[in-house]
Amino acid sequence: MLSTLKTFLFKLLFLAVLSTAALWLDAPASRAHELQPTIADLSLSPDDQITLDFRINIEAFLSGVDLDLVDNTDDDAASDAYTRLRDLPADALSELVPQLITLWNASPLAEADVPLSFSIAQLEIPEDVDIELSRISLLTLTAPLPEGARAVTLHWPAGSGALVLRQQGVEEPYTGYLAGGDSSPSIAFAGGGAQTLTQAFLGYIPVGFDHILPKGLDHILFVLGLFFLSTKLRPLVWQVSAFTLAHTVTLALGALGLVTINASVVEPLIAASIVFVAVENIFTSGLNPWRPVIIFGFGLLHGLGFASVLGEFGLPEGQFIPALIGFNIGVELGQLTVIALAFACVGWFAKRPWYRARIAVPASCVIAAVGAYWFVERVFL
User: Fold this and answer.
1) Statement: residue 340 has pLDDT above 50
2) Which one is predicted more confidently, 88 or 304?
3) How many domains, the chain?
Protein backbone atom coordinates (compact mmCIF):
# COMPACT_ATOMS: atom_id res chain seq x y z
CA MET A 1 0.00 0.00 0.00
CA LEU A 2 2.78 2.43 0.94
CA SER A 3 4.67 1.63 -2.25
CA THR A 4 1.56 2.29 -4.33
CA LEU A 5 1.01 5.62 -2.59
CA LYS A 6 4.60 6.69 -3.22
CA THR A 7 4.30 5.75 -6.89
CA PHE A 8 1.09 7.77 -7.18
CA LEU A 9 2.66 10.80 -5.54
CA PHE A 10 5.75 10.57 -7.71
CA LYS A 11 3.54 10.49 -10.82
CA LEU A 12 1.60 13.47 -9.49
CA LEU A 13 4.79 15.42 -8.98
CA PHE A 14 6.07 14.40 -12.41
CA LEU A 15 2.84 15.57 -14.05
CA ALA A 16 3.00 18.89 -12.19
CA VAL A 17 6.56 19.50 -13.33
CA LEU A 18 5.73 18.34 -16.87
CA SER A 19 2.75 20.68 -17.03
CA THR A 20 4.88 23.58 -15.88
CA ALA A 21 7.51 22.78 -18.50
CA ALA A 22 4.83 22.52 -21.19
CA LEU A 23 3.54 25.95 -20.30
CA TRP A 24 7.07 27.29 -20.45
CA LEU A 25 7.70 25.75 -23.88
CA ASP A 26 4.38 26.99 -25.24
CA ALA A 27 4.90 30.54 -24.03
CA PRO A 28 6.94 33.12 -25.92
CA ALA A 29 10.49 33.42 -24.73
CA SER A 30 10.55 35.73 -21.75
CA ARG A 31 13.37 37.93 -20.65
CA ALA A 32 14.30 37.83 -17.00
CA HIS A 33 15.37 41.30 -15.88
CA GLU A 34 16.46 41.29 -12.25
CA LEU A 35 16.02 44.75 -10.77
CA GLN A 36 18.65 46.46 -8.66
CA PRO A 37 18.22 49.31 -6.20
CA THR A 38 18.75 52.81 -7.52
CA ILE A 39 21.85 54.53 -6.16
CA ALA A 40 22.12 58.32 -5.92
CA ASP A 41 25.18 60.35 -4.93
CA LEU A 42 24.34 63.79 -3.53
CA SER A 43 26.82 66.67 -3.75
CA LEU A 44 26.97 70.46 -3.74
CA SER A 45 28.87 72.33 -6.46
CA PRO A 46 30.81 75.57 -5.87
CA ASP A 47 28.19 77.57 -7.79
CA ASP A 48 25.47 76.62 -5.29
CA GLN A 49 23.88 73.91 -7.38
CA ILE A 50 22.82 70.58 -5.99
CA THR A 51 23.83 67.51 -7.99
CA LEU A 52 22.32 64.01 -7.95
CA ASP A 53 24.27 61.30 -9.77
CA PHE A 54 22.04 58.26 -10.33
CA ARG A 55 22.80 54.66 -11.25
CA ILE A 56 19.33 53.81 -12.47
CA ASN A 57 17.29 51.39 -14.55
CA ILE A 58 15.53 54.02 -16.64
CA GLU A 59 13.35 51.53 -18.52
CA ALA A 60 11.80 50.31 -15.25
CA PHE A 61 10.78 53.85 -14.28
CA LEU A 62 9.45 54.83 -17.70
CA SER A 63 7.43 51.62 -18.13
CA GLY A 64 5.60 52.00 -14.83
CA VAL A 65 6.89 48.81 -13.19
CA ASP A 66 5.99 48.94 -9.49
CA LEU A 67 9.46 48.65 -8.01
CA ASP A 68 8.04 48.59 -4.49
CA LEU A 69 6.51 45.16 -5.09
CA VAL A 70 8.75 43.23 -7.50
CA ASP A 71 12.44 42.57 -8.05
CA ASN A 72 12.02 41.19 -11.57
CA THR A 73 10.23 42.95 -14.41
CA ASP A 74 8.63 39.68 -15.52
CA ASP A 75 6.58 39.70 -12.31
CA ASP A 76 4.82 43.00 -13.10
CA ALA A 77 1.88 43.79 -15.39
CA ALA A 78 4.07 46.39 -17.10
CA SER A 79 6.63 43.79 -18.21
CA ASP A 80 5.68 44.11 -21.90
CA ALA A 81 6.15 47.88 -21.79
CA TYR A 82 9.49 47.36 -20.07
CA THR A 83 10.62 44.91 -22.76
CA ARG A 84 9.70 47.34 -25.54
CA LEU A 85 11.73 50.09 -23.87
CA ARG A 86 14.61 47.70 -23.24
CA ASP A 87 14.71 47.01 -26.99
CA LEU A 88 15.16 50.69 -27.82
CA PRO A 89 18.62 52.00 -28.74
CA ALA A 90 20.19 54.48 -26.35
CA ASP A 91 19.38 57.55 -28.46
CA ALA A 92 15.68 56.72 -28.69
CA LEU A 93 15.43 55.95 -24.96
CA SER A 94 17.22 59.18 -23.99
CA GLU A 95 14.49 61.20 -25.71
CA LEU A 96 11.95 59.82 -23.21
CA VAL A 97 13.90 60.58 -20.04
CA PRO A 98 12.74 64.23 -19.74
CA GLN A 99 9.22 62.86 -19.16
CA LEU A 100 10.48 61.14 -16.02
CA ILE A 101 12.22 64.27 -14.75
CA THR A 102 9.06 66.32 -15.30
CA LEU A 103 7.12 63.87 -13.14
CA TRP A 104 9.79 63.96 -10.44
CA ASN A 105 9.83 67.76 -10.36
CA ALA A 106 6.05 67.84 -10.02
CA SER A 107 6.19 65.65 -6.90
CA PRO A 108 8.70 67.35 -6.03
CA LEU A 109 11.82 65.19 -5.88
CA ALA A 110 13.62 67.45 -3.38
CA GLU A 111 13.16 70.55 -1.27
CA ALA A 112 15.64 73.04 0.14
CA ASP A 113 13.32 75.54 1.83
CA VAL A 114 11.41 75.52 -1.49
CA PRO A 115 10.77 72.75 -4.06
CA LEU A 116 13.76 72.26 -6.37
CA SER A 117 13.52 72.00 -10.15
CA PHE A 118 16.02 69.55 -11.63
CA SER A 119 17.32 69.40 -15.17
CA ILE A 120 19.41 66.79 -16.94
CA ALA A 121 23.11 67.65 -16.90
CA GLN A 122 24.38 64.33 -18.26
CA LEU A 123 22.91 61.02 -19.40
CA GLU A 124 24.85 57.89 -20.32
CA ILE A 125 22.83 54.91 -21.55
CA PRO A 126 25.06 51.96 -22.44
CA GLU A 127 24.50 50.18 -25.75
CA ASP A 128 26.58 47.02 -25.31
CA VAL A 129 24.54 45.34 -22.54
CA ASP A 130 23.16 41.83 -23.11
CA ILE A 131 19.48 42.24 -24.01
CA GLU A 132 18.62 39.61 -21.40
CA LEU A 133 20.06 41.77 -18.61
CA SER A 134 18.98 45.01 -16.98
CA ARG A 135 20.62 48.11 -18.40
CA ILE A 136 21.98 50.48 -15.77
CA SER A 137 22.26 54.07 -16.95
CA LEU A 138 24.13 57.01 -15.44
CA LEU A 139 21.92 60.05 -14.97
CA THR A 140 23.12 63.37 -13.54
CA LEU A 141 20.57 65.96 -12.42
CA THR A 142 21.30 69.46 -11.21
CA ALA A 143 19.13 72.14 -9.61
CA PRO A 144 19.89 75.71 -8.48
CA LEU A 145 19.54 76.32 -4.76
CA PRO A 146 17.72 79.26 -3.21
CA GLU A 147 19.94 81.77 -1.45
CA GLY A 148 20.79 80.75 2.08
CA ALA A 149 19.72 77.11 1.75
CA ARG A 150 21.73 74.90 4.10
CA ALA A 151 20.02 71.52 3.84
CA VAL A 152 17.95 69.42 1.48
CA THR A 153 15.25 66.79 1.90
CA LEU A 154 14.76 64.17 -0.80
CA HIS A 155 11.29 62.70 -1.49
CA TRP A 156 11.55 59.34 -3.25
CA PRO A 157 8.32 58.69 -5.21
CA ALA A 158 6.07 55.75 -4.33
CA GLY A 159 6.55 52.82 -6.68
CA SER A 160 10.23 53.64 -7.22
CA GLY A 161 11.62 50.80 -5.12
CA ALA A 162 14.75 51.04 -3.03
CA LEU A 163 17.10 54.02 -3.15
CA VAL A 164 20.54 54.16 -1.60
CA LEU A 165 21.32 57.84 -1.02
CA ARG A 166 24.96 58.78 -0.38
CA GLN A 167 26.28 62.25 0.36
CA GLN A 168 29.67 63.05 -1.16
CA GLY A 169 32.46 65.56 -0.52
CA VAL A 170 31.88 66.26 3.18
CA GLU A 171 32.94 64.89 6.53
CA GLU A 172 30.55 62.50 8.26
CA PRO A 173 28.32 62.23 5.17
CA TYR A 174 24.75 61.05 5.24
CA THR A 175 24.17 57.54 3.86
CA GLY A 176 20.68 56.12 3.97
CA TYR A 177 18.14 53.73 2.53
CA LEU A 178 14.79 54.99 1.27
CA ALA A 179 11.88 52.83 0.18
CA GLY A 180 9.38 54.09 -2.38
CA GLY A 181 7.28 56.84 -0.82
CA ASP A 182 9.88 57.66 1.86
CA SER A 183 11.54 61.01 2.51
CA SER A 184 15.07 61.52 3.76
CA PRO A 185 15.84 63.50 6.89
CA SER A 186 17.06 67.02 6.38
CA ILE A 187 20.59 66.58 5.00
CA ALA A 188 22.97 69.43 5.85
CA PHE A 189 25.18 70.51 2.95
CA ALA A 190 28.05 70.95 5.42
CA GLY A 191 27.93 67.27 6.42
CA GLY A 192 27.65 65.81 9.87
CA GLY A 193 24.59 63.71 8.99
CA ALA A 194 26.22 60.30 9.26
CA GLN A 195 23.95 57.70 10.80
CA THR A 196 24.52 56.53 14.33
CA LEU A 197 25.07 52.83 14.98
CA THR A 198 21.48 52.52 16.17
CA GLN A 199 20.12 54.27 13.08
CA ALA A 200 22.13 51.99 10.79
CA PHE A 201 20.90 48.93 12.69
CA LEU A 202 17.25 50.00 12.54
CA GLY A 203 17.52 51.25 8.97
CA TYR A 204 18.64 47.90 7.56
CA ILE A 205 15.97 45.79 9.28
CA PRO A 206 13.34 46.73 6.66
CA VAL A 207 15.88 46.03 3.89
CA GLY A 208 16.21 42.43 5.09
CA PHE A 209 12.48 42.01 5.71
CA ASP A 210 11.64 43.41 2.26
CA HIS A 211 13.94 40.84 0.66
CA ILE A 212 11.67 38.13 2.10
CA LEU A 213 8.27 39.83 2.04
CA PRO A 214 7.13 40.66 -0.54
CA LYS A 215 10.08 40.23 -2.93
CA GLY A 216 11.77 36.97 -1.93
CA LEU A 217 9.45 34.40 -3.46
CA ASP A 218 12.20 31.78 -3.80
CA HIS A 219 13.12 32.14 -0.12
CA ILE A 220 9.42 32.11 0.83
CA LEU A 221 8.91 28.80 -0.98
CA PHE A 222 11.97 27.29 0.68
CA VAL A 223 10.69 28.27 4.13
CA LEU A 224 7.26 26.87 3.25
CA GLY A 225 9.00 23.67 2.23
CA LEU A 226 10.40 23.46 5.75
CA PHE A 227 6.96 24.15 7.20
CA PHE A 228 5.11 21.48 5.24
CA LEU A 229 7.35 18.64 6.44
CA SER A 230 5.67 18.88 9.81
CA THR A 231 3.91 21.58 11.79
CA LYS A 232 5.26 20.13 15.03
CA LEU A 233 7.50 22.59 16.80
CA ARG A 234 10.62 20.43 17.22
CA PRO A 235 11.19 19.52 13.52
CA LEU A 236 10.47 23.10 12.50
CA VAL A 237 12.90 24.54 15.07
CA TRP A 238 15.67 22.14 13.98
CA GLN A 239 15.23 23.05 10.34
CA VAL A 240 14.90 26.80 10.78
CA SER A 241 17.86 26.87 13.19
CA ALA A 242 20.10 25.05 10.69
CA PHE A 243 18.96 27.32 7.88
CA THR A 244 19.41 30.49 9.95
CA LEU A 245 22.88 29.55 11.19
CA ALA A 246 24.07 28.70 7.69
CA HIS A 247 22.80 31.77 5.87
CA THR A 248 24.10 34.00 8.67
CA VAL A 249 27.62 32.64 8.08
CA THR A 250 27.67 33.14 4.32
CA LEU A 251 25.79 36.44 4.56
CA ALA A 252 28.59 37.83 6.72
CA LEU A 253 31.38 36.30 4.59
CA GLY A 254 29.74 37.49 1.37
CA ALA A 255 29.11 41.00 2.68
CA LEU A 256 32.77 41.22 3.72
CA GLY A 257 33.83 40.10 0.25
CA LEU A 258 35.59 37.01 1.60
CA VAL A 259 33.36 34.62 -0.35
CA THR A 260 31.89 35.37 -3.75
CA ILE A 261 30.10 33.02 -6.12
CA ASN A 262 28.54 34.08 -9.41
CA ALA A 263 24.77 34.53 -9.19
CA SER A 264 24.39 32.36 -12.29
CA VAL A 265 25.59 29.46 -10.11
CA VAL A 266 23.88 30.38 -6.83
CA GLU A 267 20.39 31.09 -8.19
CA PRO A 268 19.86 27.71 -9.95
CA LEU A 269 21.13 25.91 -6.85
CA ILE A 270 18.65 27.84 -4.70
CA ALA A 271 15.89 26.67 -7.06
CA ALA A 272 17.20 23.08 -6.76
CA SER A 273 17.11 23.36 -2.96
CA ILE A 274 13.41 24.27 -3.15
CA VAL A 275 12.75 21.17 -5.26
CA PHE A 276 14.67 18.96 -2.82
CA VAL A 277 12.85 19.96 0.36
CA ALA A 278 9.48 19.81 -1.36
CA VAL A 279 10.05 16.35 -2.88
CA GLU A 280 11.32 14.99 0.43
CA ASN A 281 8.14 16.28 2.08
CA ILE A 282 6.15 14.09 -0.30
CA PHE A 283 7.96 10.86 0.56
CA THR A 284 8.53 11.35 4.28
CA SER A 285 6.44 12.71 7.10
CA GLY A 286 9.13 13.12 9.75
CA LEU A 287 12.49 14.73 10.33
CA ASN A 288 15.27 12.46 9.07
CA PRO A 289 18.68 12.79 10.78
CA TRP A 290 20.33 14.06 7.60
CA ARG A 291 17.75 16.74 6.75
CA PRO A 292 19.08 19.49 9.08
CA VAL A 293 22.58 18.87 7.67
CA ILE A 294 21.33 19.19 4.09
CA ILE A 295 19.30 22.27 4.98
CA PHE A 296 22.44 23.77 6.52
CA GLY A 297 24.15 23.32 3.17
CA PHE A 298 21.25 24.92 1.35
CA GLY A 299 21.28 27.72 3.89
CA LEU A 300 24.85 28.52 2.87
CA LEU A 301 23.58 29.03 -0.69
CA HIS A 302 20.67 31.22 0.39
CA GLY A 303 23.07 33.30 2.49
CA LEU A 304 25.10 34.03 -0.64
CA GLY A 305 21.89 35.14 -2.30
CA PHE A 306 21.20 37.51 0.60
CA ALA A 307 24.80 38.77 0.44
CA SER A 308 24.45 39.66 -3.25
CA VAL A 309 21.42 41.80 -2.43
CA LEU A 310 23.24 43.47 0.45
CA GLY A 311 26.21 44.07 -1.85
CA GLU A 312 23.94 45.94 -4.26
CA PHE A 313 22.85 48.27 -1.47
CA GLY A 314 26.26 48.65 0.03
CA LEU A 315 26.92 49.05 3.73
CA PRO A 316 27.69 52.45 5.25
CA GLU A 317 31.30 52.90 6.30
CA GLY A 318 31.70 52.85 10.04
CA GLN A 319 28.37 51.07 10.58
CA PHE A 320 29.10 47.75 8.86
CA ILE A 321 28.38 45.48 11.82
CA PRO A 322 25.10 47.06 13.01
CA ALA A 323 23.84 47.34 9.43
CA LEU A 324 24.70 43.69 8.77
CA ILE A 325 22.99 42.56 11.98
CA GLY A 326 19.96 44.69 11.19
CA PHE A 327 19.68 43.18 7.70
CA ASN A 328 19.93 39.65 9.10
CA ILE A 329 17.28 40.34 11.74
CA GLY A 330 15.03 41.69 9.01
CA VAL A 331 15.49 38.45 7.06
CA GLU A 332 14.65 36.40 10.15
CA LEU A 333 11.55 38.46 10.88
CA GLY A 334 10.46 37.91 7.29
CA GLN A 335 10.95 34.15 7.58
CA LEU A 336 9.08 33.96 10.88
CA THR A 337 6.25 35.98 9.35
CA VAL A 338 6.01 33.48 6.49
CA ILE A 339 5.78 30.59 8.97
CA ALA A 340 3.23 32.43 11.09
CA LEU A 341 1.06 33.17 8.05
CA ALA A 342 1.29 29.55 6.89
CA PHE A 343 0.26 28.30 10.32
CA ALA A 344 -2.60 30.79 10.46
CA CYS A 345 -3.87 29.53 7.09
CA VAL A 346 -3.50 25.76 7.41
CA GLY A 347 -1.84 24.94 10.72
CA TRP A 348 -5.20 24.57 12.42
CA PHE A 349 -5.80 21.40 10.39
CA ALA A 350 -2.47 19.78 11.19
CA LYS A 351 -3.95 17.22 13.59
CA ARG A 352 -6.62 16.12 11.16
CA PRO A 353 -5.94 12.69 9.60
CA TRP A 354 -6.35 14.14 6.09
CA TYR A 355 -3.98 17.10 6.58
CA ARG A 356 -0.93 15.49 5.03
CA ALA A 357 -2.73 13.95 2.03
CA ARG A 358 -4.90 16.96 1.24
CA ILE A 359 -2.73 19.91 2.23
CA ALA A 360 0.95 19.17 2.91
CA VAL A 361 1.59 16.84 -0.05
CA PRO A 362 -0.31 18.87 -2.71
CA ALA A 363 1.34 22.08 -1.47
CA SER A 364 4.75 20.41 -1.66
CA CYS A 365 3.98 19.25 -5.23
CA VAL A 366 3.24 22.83 -6.25
CA ILE A 367 6.40 24.11 -4.53
CA ALA A 368 8.50 21.44 -6.26
CA ALA A 369 6.99 22.27 -9.65
CA VAL A 370 7.72 25.98 -9.26
CA GLY A 371 11.27 25.26 -8.08
CA ALA A 372 11.84 22.94 -11.06
CA TYR A 373 10.61 25.62 -13.45
CA TRP A 374 12.91 28.20 -11.88
CA PHE A 375 15.85 25.81 -12.18
CA VAL A 376 15.19 25.36 -15.91
CA GLU A 377 14.66 29.10 -16.36
CA ARG A 378 17.83 30.07 -14.53
CA VAL A 379 20.02 27.53 -16.31
CA PHE A 380 18.67 27.63 -19.85
CA LEU A 381 16.93 30.98 -20.34
Assistant:
1) yes
2) 88
3) 2
Q: Looking at the structure, do residues 129 and 212 belong to the same domain, yes or no? A: no
Specify the pLDDT at position 22: 37
pLDDT digits (tens, 9 = 90+) for 61-105: 999 999 888 777 777 788 899 999 999 999 999 999 999 999 999
Residues 229 and 311 in one domain: yes
| Domain-ending residue, one of 143, 159, 194 | 194
pLDDT averaged over every residue in the chain: 84
Domain containing 363 equals 2-30+204-380
User: Taking Cα atoms as reference points, which of 91, 81, 155, 78 lies closest to residue 126?
Assistant: 91
Mean pLDDT of 218-222: 90
Closest CA to 241 of 169, 311, 335: 335
Cβ neighbours of residue 174 under 8 Å, at least 6 residues apart? 42, 165, 166, 167, 184, 185, 187, 191, 193, 194, 195
285 pLDDT higher than 90: no
Among residues of the chain, what percentage have pLDDT more than 70?
88
Contact 208, 326 (CB under 8 A): yes
Does residue 15 form part of some domain?
Answer: yes
Residue 199 lies in a domain: no
Residues 231 and 320 in one domain: yes
